[in-house]
Design brief:
about 5% helix
Length: about 400
């Protein structure tokens, strides 16, 4: 009897005592993935130290895209007829009151997606759509399946090869409609198809379709006369045309979506950008630039800001709330927009508290303090560093 009472007393004391969680430390990790303009390689750089972690050899020079989660980086090799996938090595777990971060070595996954002339990558909530211009087909899969090494793929075919795009939304896929008479020209609209491949509703007209982005629960596709804006919820998306209003003659052909604030940033003519709030009465606000535009990006950490690089070698910070330039910083020698559209020119990425601008002709990555908007250290990269993708964040490690 005595031993039973002692055991019960010990259990009571244990139950009444607070349970101390495993020791946790706050950790930040940011990585930059950099493709070369001419060589079939991708560098992974630790942004905390500026040192290269690894270099991955692929089939052809590539454009880089990151998944929404940041766990995967995709290398679209248009001249290699393949898309490679890399694990960034950084992942996060949500525990309600805090998030955990797990950091491992980045690696080139033993998974690739082959097809003629891959051109577009779109991720929406882990549903990934890869479009192949040379086939006029999209391949749709899930990021989780890719990371497990078992990607289930479903194909969505259009009527002809064309420079198109697809957006996967659960049971539905939005896919571009080729120009029936001239399929080598830009698409003419968006069609919604279900899992069986059957069309849902009518064609949504969008002449000169080029440019797609998402922000919050909205997706926008740029057209000749305005944007197709889609509200994502249960079932097929609601799609409406938002005509360009109060703007001079022109159109957007590239869009990026705001983070933290719901808006879109697009090009509009060679030396201007346009801020787009589809839910505002004054949906379009045009911002003229000092010279022609080279590249632009939004800040996913400081939602109020976006950045644009111009051909005079300057980086400009955009206050998206006030719709004005509120800072400029000379970084490079001029990069003229004359010449071929694919010539090596700077690109922008935001890695936590640092803005990074590639300088391919000098073999440098320029870093800028995002708080002070002042240039800090340069990172030397052999070759011609070109496309940039930043992945990372902060969390607890146990």
């Amino acid at each position: 009897m005595k031993s039973l009472l002692s055991a019960a007393s010990a259990l009571a004391i244990f139950a009444a005592s607070p349970i101390t969680p495993a020791h946790a430390e706050e950790k930040s990790a940011w990585r930059l993935f950099v493709s070369d303009h001419a060589q079939p390689i991708v560098h992974a750089i630790d942004m905390e130290t500026g040192h290269k972690i690894d270099t991955f050899t692929i089939k052809a020079p590539t454009s880089l895209y990151r998944s929404d989660s940041g766990r995967t980086v995709f290398a679209l090799q248009g001249k290699g007829d393949v898309i490679s996938a890399l694990s960034s090595g950084i992942s996060f777990g949500d525990h309600g009151d805090h998030g955990d971060i797990d950091v491992e070595a980045p690696k080139l996954l033993d998974i690739s997606f082959e097809g003629k002339k891959p051109s577009h990558f779109v991720d929406h909530d882990g549903d990934i759509a890869l479009f192949f211009d040379g086939e006029g087909k999209a391949r749709v899969t899930r990021e989780a399946d890719i990371l497990e090494g078992k990607p289930a793929i479903r194909e969505v075919a259009t009527d002809a090869p064309h420079h198109g795009v697809a957006i996967a939304l659960g049971d539905h896929v939005l896919v571009s409609e080729p120009n029936a008479e001239k399929p080598d020209e830009l698409p003419v609209g968006i069609r919604v198809v279900d899992r069986s491949g059957a069309s849902v509703g009518d064609l949504h007209e969008c002449p000169d379709l080029h440019g797609e982005a998402s922000s919050g629960n909205l997706i926008a596709v740029a057209c000749a006369k305005g944007l197709l804006v889609m509200s994502v919820g249960k079932g097929a998306p609601a799609i409406d045309l938002l005509p360009y209003a109060g703007l001079p003659e022109g159109k957007s052909t590239t869009l990026v979506g705001g983070r933290g604030l719901q808006y879109f940033l697009g090009n509009y003519g060679p030396s201007a950008v346009v801020l787009i709030d589809p839910k505002s009465e004054n949906a379009f606000r045009l911002l003229e630039l000092p010279t022609r535009r080279v590249h632009f990006a939004v800040d996913p950490v400081r939602a109020k800001f976006a950045y644009v690089f111009t051909e005079d070698g300057s980086l400009h910070r955009i206050d998206v709330v006030a719709a004005k330039l509120d800072g400029s910083l000379k970084l490079t020698e001029p990069y003229s927009m004359d010449g071929h559209w694919s010539d090596p020119r700077p690109r922008i990425a935001v890695a936590g508290d640092r803005i990074v601008v590639s300088n391919p002709l000098k073999g440098l990555l320029h870093t800028i303090d995002a708080e002070t908007f002042e240039q800090t250290a340069d990172i030397a990269v052999e070759g011609r560093p070109f496309n940039l993708v930043a992945v990372g964040g902060s969390g607890e490690t146990h």
